[in-house]
Design goal:
- The protein has helices at residues 11-22, 59-75, 96-108, 149-162, 211-218, 287-300, 359-369, 371-374, 396-406, 412-422, 426-430, 449-458, 464-471, 480-497; strands spanning 2-7, 27-30, 46-47, 80-88, 119-122, 138-147, 166-168, 171-178, 183-189, 195-205, 227-238, 246-250, 256-262, 266-270, 274-275, 312-321, 336-340, 348-352.
- Strands 3, 4, 5, 6, 11, 12, 13, 14, 15 and 16 form a 10-stranded mixed β-sheet that branches. Strands 1, 2, 7, 8, 9, 10, 17 and 18 form an 8-stranded mixed β-sheet that branches.
- Helix 1 runs parallel beside helix 4, helix 1 packs across helix 7 (359-369) and helix 9 (396-406) packs across helix 10 (412-422).
- By secondary structure, it is of the alpha+beta class.
- The mean pLDDT is 94.
- Strand 13 and strand 14 (266-270) form a beta hairpin.
């Protein structure tokens, strides 16, 4: 008998699994695909308060998110780090006084301690002005953080497993039935076809864009759909500028678009906001979205951004609570937890909406909602690091040097990548390797056989997509021949590793 069965291996599901298992609860999590294979790997990859949400008067959500920035930064400084954002002033869109007021609130709502405050800059005197058109003469600069979203999910799952949770990927919930004193959950392993049934005192529906599908087709509760699916798409192009700051651009439709340094040699541009009615598993960018993002960047950059420059795109579906009416960009990004106890029977907790930034607080609230059944146990995650994050926020360079010295011939570039991905866990990958050749076959871009085995043994990686796009972003640097070699190795070694 599990205390909690969780449907969904995105950031909310894995965050709840970590929180609950750390409180001594017995947890089972089922994910029908790979961890973070849906919405949680398709974000703009920011830990941020959401400056634009102040215009919608969502002060509680912004304040909670701002407070979480530095909590998360301290938990995982290898995959989360500070990033400065430059907001060029476009006089025709928002007046300067409004932006100054918003940034004053942004600086003071969340109890900022580590991140520097906002200020105004003259673009002619700043490196941030060099790639911009000359008509933009001043800008506002402020702080938020970058996050590797897919790795954040995996690290939460790893910590949950280390604390006793059972994490099952490629495992789909076929049906869930409410019994007199528990939930009976039928599962099917998508790789082997094997079926099993588990029992749990509570059930959490953290299926993201599939939350309504779980309710109707798996739990058997028919009713009005509760979520509004909003697609967000991003493009990646070769690096557009040389400095390390990001841009936030205002558009005539009152949306904003980010341009962010990405994986050293690229620039990430996004996002769109488009209502979506199709299968969340088949979401993809459209030509109109590519043109929209290129046009938004070209409004500000001296050198136009063209669709033929795009080297990669990704799209995700945000499962927002449907409040009826309004445009997609105006729909709330706040989360809602809905507890269904069905006349005193075993609880079902449904999760609607949410943001990467507030996943930890959402997890705490989820456990609080279930305290009537599971009992009250102390919250603990605010001061606890995620796997690999047990080093100082400003200790990245020291760790890189340590890893580089530990393995002769390991390039500084690859040492940086390993530390960014794995933090102190990079030591486990290179353990015992006197020289780079000891890490085994190199599949390209520094991806070694030793690293692949680590990902398969510790991080639920199964396919080349798991490895190249979610555990790392080396897909940007792999050609088809390199991918074929990786696929062949995985096919040969998967059974042995399992």
């Amino acid at each position: 008998m599990y205390d909690i069965a969780i449907i969904g291996g995105g950031v909310n599901g894995c965050g709840i699994a970590r929180d609950a298992s750390g409180r001594g609860l017995k947890v089972f999590l089922a994910e029908k695909g790979d961890l973070a294979s849906g919405t949680s790997s398709a974000s703009t990859k920011l830990v941020h308060g959401g400056l634009r949400y102040l215009e919608h008067y969502e002060f509680r959500m912004v304040r909670e998110a701002l407070k979480e920035r530095e909590v998360l930064l301290s938990m995982a400084p290898h995959i989360i780090w500070p990033l400065r954002f430059v907001l060029p002033h476009h006089a025709a869109l928002r007046p300067a006084w409004l932006i100054r007021t918003g940034l004053f609130l942004y600086d003071h709502l969340g109890g900022r301690k580590i991140l520097p405050a906002s200020h105004q800059i003259k673009l002619a005197r700043s490196a941030a002005g060099a790639p911009l058109k000359s008509e933009f003469t001043r800008a506002f600069e402020y702080s938020d953080c970058w996050v590797d979203d897919a790795r954040l999910v995996v690290l939460n799952a790893m910590d949950a497993k280390a604390r006793g949770a059972e994490i099952k990927t490629r495992t789909e919930v076929i049906a869930a039935r409410r019994m007199a004193d528990h939930w009976s959950v039928d599962l099917e392993n998508k790789l082997s076809g094997q079926r099993q049934t588990i029992a749990a005192r509570t059930l959490i529906n953290a299926a993201g864009p599939w939350v309504d599908d779980v309710l109707t087709r798996r739990v058997g509760q028919n009713g009005k759909p509760r979520i509004r699916l909003v697609k967000g798409s991003h493009i990646v192009v070769p690096k557009l500028y040389d400095h390390d700051r990001a841009y936030i651009f205002q558009n005539a439709d009152r949306r904003i678009v980010f341009a962010i340094p990405y994986e050293t040699d690229f620039t990430l541009i996004g996002t769109t906001d488009v209502d979506y009615t199709g299968d969340p598993g088949s979401v993809a960018i459209t030509d109109d979205e590519v043109n929209y993002l290129c046009s938004a960047a070209s409004t500000y950059f001296k050198t136009p951004t063209r669709p033929d420059q795009v080297v990669w795109t990704y799209s995700g579906v945000r499962p927002l609570l449907d409040e009826g009416g309004g445009s997609a960009q105006d729909a709330t990004r706040d989360y809602v937890l809905e507890l269904d106890t069905a006349d005193g029977h075993m609880p079902l907790l449904n999760i609607f909406g949410g943001k990467i930034t507030t996943y930890r607080r959402l997890a705490e609230e989820a456990i609080a909602q279930l305290s009537g059944t599971l009992g009250t146990r102390a919250a603990w995650t605010a001061g606890a690091t995620l796997p690999g994050g047990d080093f100082p926020v400003d200790g990245y360079e020291d760790l890189v040097r340590d890893i580089s010295r530990s393995c002769h011939g390991l390039s500084l570039t690859n040492a940086r990548r390993l530390v960014r991905n794995y933090g102190t866990r990079a030591r486990a990958i290179i353990a015992g390797a006197k020289k780079a050749e000891d890490l085994g076959q190199d599949f390209g871009a520094g991806l070694s056989e030793r690293e692949i085995r680590y990902l398969m043994d510790n991080e639920w990686a199964v396919t080349s997509s798991d490895i190249l796009w979610r555990r790392t972003k080396l897909g940007l640097r792999f050609d088809s021949a390199s991918k074929d070699r990786l696929d062949a190795w995985l096919s040969k070694n998967a059974a042995a590793v399992a």
